[in-house]
Amino acid sequence: MTMTTADKIQANLNKRYAAERRFRSYGLVSVAIGLAALLFLFLSIIGKGYTAFQQTYVKLDVQFDAAIIDPQRTRDPQTLARADYGKLIKKTMRERFPDVKNRRDKRKLYKLISPGAVYMIQDMVRNDPRLIGTTQTVWVPADDDVDMLIKGYINRDEPESARRLKDKEIAWIDSLAATSSLEKRFNKTFFTAGDSREPELAGIWGAVVGSFYTLVVTLVLSFPIGVATAVYLEEFAPTNRWTDLIEVNINNLAAVPSIVFGLLGLSVFLNFMALPRSAPLVGGLVLSLMTLPTVIIASRASLQSVPPSIREGALGMGASQMQMVAHHVLPLAMPGMLTGTIIGMARALGESAPLLMIGMVAFIVNVPEGPLDPSTVLPVQIYLWADTPERAFVERTSAATLVLLAFLVVMNGAAVWLRKRFEQRW
Amino acid sequence: MLNQKQAVLLESPAQTNDVPPPAPAKIQEPDTKTVGRVTVDKPIMTTRNVDVYYGEKQAIIDVSIDIAYNEVLSMIGPSGCGKSTFLRCLNRMNDTIESARVTGKIELEGHDIYDKKTDVVTLRARVGMVFQKPNPFPKSVYENVAYGPRIHGLARKQAELDEIVQTSLQRAGLWEEVKDRLSEPGTGLSGGQQQRLCIARSIAVNPDIILMDEPCSALDPIATARIEELIDELRQNYSIVIVTHSMQQAARVSQRTAYFHLGDLIEVGETSTIFTNPQEKLTEDYLTGRFG
Ligand SMILES: Nc1ncnc2c1ncn2[C@@H]1O[C@H](COP(=O)(O)OP(=O)(O)O)[C@@H](O)[C@H]1O
Ligand SMILES: [Mg+2]
Known about the structure:
The complex is a heterodimer of chains A (426) and B (292).
Chain A: H1 5-49, E1 54-63, H2 66-69, H3 77-82, H4 85-96, H5 103-110, H6 116-127, E2 135-141, H7 144-150, H8 167-178, E3 182-186, H9 188-192, H10 205-236, H11 241-254, H12 258-272, H13 280-304, H14 308-316, H15 321-349, H16 353-357, H17 378-386, H18 391-422
Antiparallel strand pairs in A: 1-2, 1-3
Helix pairs in contact in A: 1-18, 10-13, 10-15, 10-17, 11-13, 12-13, 13-15, 14-15, 15-18, 17-18
Chain B: E1 43-54, E2 57-68, E3 72-76, H1 83-89, E4 100-108, E5 111-112, H2 120-126, E6 127-130, H3 141-152, H4 158-171, H5 175-178, H6 191-203, E7 209-213, H7 221-234, E8 239-243, H8 247-253, E9 256-261, E10 264-270, H9 271-276, H10 281-287
Parallel strand pairs in B: 3-8, 3-9, 6-7, 7-8
Antiparallel strand pairs in B: 1-2, 1-4, 4-5, 9-10
Helix pairs in contact in B: 3-4, 3-6, 4-6, 6-7
Bound molecules: adenosine-5'-diphosphate and magnesium ion.
């Protein structure tokens, strides 16, 4: 029996279709794996982190005892500032739990309240001295161990010796909860405070501001320098050995591990130029070095995508090289350049290794007020918290990661939007 | 269809409508292999012994030809024979190609355009160019036409600029179609309109010569007819050098025709003579469609 051409083609066709189906399913499977990994990452971070957006507060009926705060009744701000507000809180707690007599137990009792409560009370009195002599209901942050118990992270079934909170403490906490003196509230501190040794007082604002100053320095340096370099190389430089060499080096720089830029920053900016340690200025300088190749490469690609016909049109009208670039090429290339820059910035925002080298890893409580103040940045803050033993920092680490991811998503979204919005078709 | 429209065209002081009388004067004919008369009696531009190299490769070999006032000179030949290359010598667009090297002498009204003292910006303002693919700037119709006058500082006031834009669009036969959409992007016009916009753009700086490199090759027949008509009108004020791959087009729009072959200028003559009675075998073969 002989096969006709059509039969042969038919036999072949089935094979071809099968291959195509196989290939498609491979593609689908890989996409699914990728999505699953992403989903897992997000779910685990959100699952671990969302509880950090709430914090347990304790209701105290604080008696603003004049004898403790201001025995001479001077109302002198100096005196008010120096008064021992801790005593007020301790007194309140003793009155709340009159059965506690033992000194060791009392100390444990006081520790249920965050040390930050003292500053809260102090601020209240300094803002309004008329409170002295009255009794006020105040919600103060609970200690992180209380918070962890309320959030269910401390297992009551564990033997007492293995638990951070002993049976007595748990009993006190249950008693507070039973009288609705414990409440989970939105954790504003997390978004407004700098770092702290106490998890319930620690916030990301210091790191966010530090990241902001660092990125501003990075942007101000890398965008103009990167664009100018790209324009020069692409539009003005002759092609010769030197420009080839520069091009090769820029491409290599883009692949240099970021920590190397940190080492460079350490030896050049800190040791040689004696710039301040831990400062966003130096962080920005280092990240600019790292981001520049990305910006240059993206800008050059963007310049290359401007069709030669536009250049010829401008030159044919008698525009000078400079006018051609400024009037026609740059405006058309700008969205691409901005996209590249934003992506470079997003990378810089997530970078921690080079900043460790220049001391941005220090423990800094104050929110920086300028690019010369010591500060840290978001990814380094995450790294620092991930390294602490307290259980309450685990959820804060995840929450800070969530914030960082949110910034990155916004930046990448902006890049995608720019590209879509200004996409040119020729 | 052609030669009938006598549009009201503004007089340009630099040019005259007089076609010079057949000259008895002795003109130094250059030493060339080209068949036919390459000179004209009153040239606006002369080229002598022009060679163009792209690196080692020679693309134009010893070409000499004149361009007269108020004439349309067409350049034809098989593709790759160097028509575009030669055209781009006339306003030094080849400067933008790094490997390109031009030797010989090209003069615009007696001034060597490759002289060190010649400013290429001024040259390109006087010798405009229209490209094969319409390439309006991705800006408004108005901005497209106003661009040249702006960069050359031709208008001091907004009203003057408006006037230049309107006149240029009128001369390019586009005014009626776009007068209500001057602020819309030039890239939104149809292909033929875009090409006329490009023509308007180059005449806005009032050049002496307009170079056109296959201006109709990307257009449909109706748009092509429109441009051809326009070319004929523009001849009143400008000299036009047009590269075309269509022999019919050369026959319709040009007074003189130059035939290129592999970088050589084979034959030059009155268009009617070239098409009816070519002197060279190569020209005849090309015109009769034996290759191309
Ligand atoms: N930029 C360039 N670099 C190198 N060679 C070129 C370049 N432009 C054109 N050429 C070569 O020069 C010759 C003439 O090209 P061109 O002037 O474009 O011909 P035409 O316009 O008659 O089709 C061709 O062989 C072409 O390959
Ligand atoms: Mg060509």
